[in-house]
Amino acid sequence: MKIINNFFDDTTLDLIQECYLQNFDKGDWIHGYSFYEKKGVKQNLEIMVLKIDQLQESIVKYLLDAKIIKHSPKDFVCMLHYAGPGCSIDWHTDAPSQDDTTGNSNTCGITVFMNTDWQDNWGSQFMHKNKFDDMEGKFITPVYNTAIINNGLEPHGVAPVSYGAKPRLTFQIFLDRDSLND
Questions:
Q1: In what order do the strands lie in the sheet with 126-128?
Q2: How much is the pTM?
Q3: Is residue 95 classed exposed, middle or buried when 0-12, 13-18 and 19+ CB atoms within 10 A define those classes?
């Protein structure tokens, strides 16, 4: 896992925030089950996902310019996540070896926290560990514009969003691991 604070520049953050605002009340969001269950990832309650193809070119260019990736990825998807109170995502990897509907076990992920304010008692920490049989995981509290880059092989999940908390907003990027810079 790699953690990068102040991941996006202001221009890119504005594009993503605008996308949230423009699409928040539209019916294009899909239930997270439609996306994640195909990959064998279990989630609880209502995580909503919106694929945003219109930002793909801008995001790839940004990742190239920032040297996060070394070349344009062969596989790439970016999406908005909205997780309300009670939502969580069980331990998983982004590169499952079984039931991978894309046929690509080379997938890695980048999670960028989009809430401008978040309180520790609201839960929803990003959890990660080196392997599934590790007894102890590490927890990362959502901090605005902080990115977590994982190689797709490390188990991770999301602790439940506390009741009474604001929805957890993230920007998710999935791409082929070969395109990441070390």
A1: 43-44, 88-92, 156-158, 126-128, 138-140
A2: 0.87
A3: buried
